Amino acid sequence: MTDTTFADLGLSKALLDAVAEQGYEHPSPIQAQAIPAVLEGRDVMAAAQTGTGKTAGFTLPLLHLLSGGSKVQGNQVRALVLTPTRELAAQVAESVNTYGKHLPLRCQVVFGGVKINPQMMALRRGTDVLVATPGRLLDLYQQNAVRFNQLEVLVLDEADRMLDMGFIHDIKKILAVLPPKRQNLLFSATFSDEIRALAKGLVNDPQEISVTPPNSTAERVEQAIYPVDKNRKAPLLCKLIDDGNWQQVLVFTRTKHGANRLAKQLIASQITAAPIHGNKSQSARTKALADFKSGAVRVLVATDIAARGLDIDQLPQVVNFDLPNVAEDYVHRIGRTGRAGASGKAVSLVCSEETKELKSIERLIRQVLPRENVPGFEPSHDLPESALDGRPSKPKKPKKPKQHQDGQRQAGGDKPTQGRHSGQGSGDRPAQSRSGGQGQQRPAGEGQPRRRRRRPQPKPQA
């Protein structure tokens, strides 16, 4: 595949010129397989992780197909791309505009966290490509701002993350209003059972493409574990950044509050940093990402959902300040570095309380991660040597049941805010809401011993 050029794939001259202007000549493996399949009009299921070039793998053939079609009418959409987060939506739209610069096609992007009226006005003339997050798209449809009678192609990007974020009900609502005759493209990091269940009602005789072995980590990424006590993680991170002269570092935390706290600690140590998560306004998130890309900010502190789909070229360092609760997220995290043939380093600051998460990760990737102690930061409790050595683990003491409260951390990492949801990563929360039954105040008198009422004494008779 290395000798294949974009000119061999059957793309139009306008697209080839745009690709050449970006400095690309040879397609990546996912592009070499997906582009011909999409051009043939086939439904496609593609398993590809971030950094493999999958966005161009569907935007290029999509633009080729649309360039030869009919003119779009008012409020209509010819191609719909659904993404789980605002940042990914913006990046897909940027890709469409970059590669479609020589074509007379219109592209619009819509997501939550910003005013809806300008988006409604922009859709009045219709658009050839609409990139959207599910919640905001449903809002626009319910207000008659968008119609799908002319829809030709549907793309589900990062489908696994959309399911993880709970968008399945929104996706089903959207599918119900789309015309049944259309081309469907589904892109996901892996083909899990949930993804295949979704695909059954979506794609028709699809061509399956997989360019990454399941749950594998990039060969060019150097991985290391730094054992450290929990309260010494921030000072150790500052030392690693200073000693290594790291100029661009993406740091993952488990919670939004943790991201805010770490960013403040880094700034206090004279290291420019910015947090990015679902509680930040869209303008703040856009600015943080722009400053990070330009070099004005050295460290971007992110939660998993907010960081999903971030397109940052040649990112040299990724740091797991907290190990993820879900082992698969480790693979996604470190996939942000070592992209497009470049080398990278992924380090994890692991305390003894994260032994369970570390074992899960090593079992998943079938790899023992090397431990490196930093002088002056040796932990008070050693980490296990390996999760793959076959030795029986010590029996665990039964945990006391914890009382769940509204706002308790979920498996996804970020905390839901009380009351209205914060819209992690997308600004469009799934339609369903979760009520925090416990932890709320009881109505007066509920669950408390009742006071005895005094029985009225009989009045003395006259």
From TrEMBL:
One of its GO terms (molecular function) is nucleic acid binding. PROSITE patterns: DEAD_ATP_HELICASE, HELICASE_ATP_BIND_1, HELICASE_CTER, Q_MOTIF. A motif (Q motif) lies at residues 4-32. Residues 430-447 have a biased composition (Low complexity). Its EC number is 3.6.4.13. Residues 393-402, 450-462 have a biased composition (Basic residues). It catalyses: ATP + H2O = ADP + phosphate + H(+). The keyword Cytoplasm applies. Keywords: ATP-binding, Cytoplasm, Helicase, Hydrolase, Nucleotide-binding, Ribosome biogenesis. Gene3D superfamilies: P-loop containing nucleotide triphosphate hydrolases. It is found in: Cytoplasm. Residues 4-32 form the DEAD-box RNA helicase Q domain. GO terms for cellular component: cytosol. It comes from the Bacteria. Residues 373-462 are annotated as: Disordered. Residues 220-382 form the Helicase C-terminal domain. The keyword Ribosomal protein does not apply. GO terms for biological process: response to temperature stimulus; ribosome assembly. SUPFAM superfamilies: P-loop containing nucleoside triphosphate hydrolases. Residues 35-209 form the Helicase ATP-binding domain. Belongs to the DEAD box helicase family. RhlE subfamily. This is ATP-dependent RNA helicase RhlE. The lineage of its organism: Bacteria, Pseudomonadati, Pseudomonadota, Gammaproteobacteria, Enterobacterales.
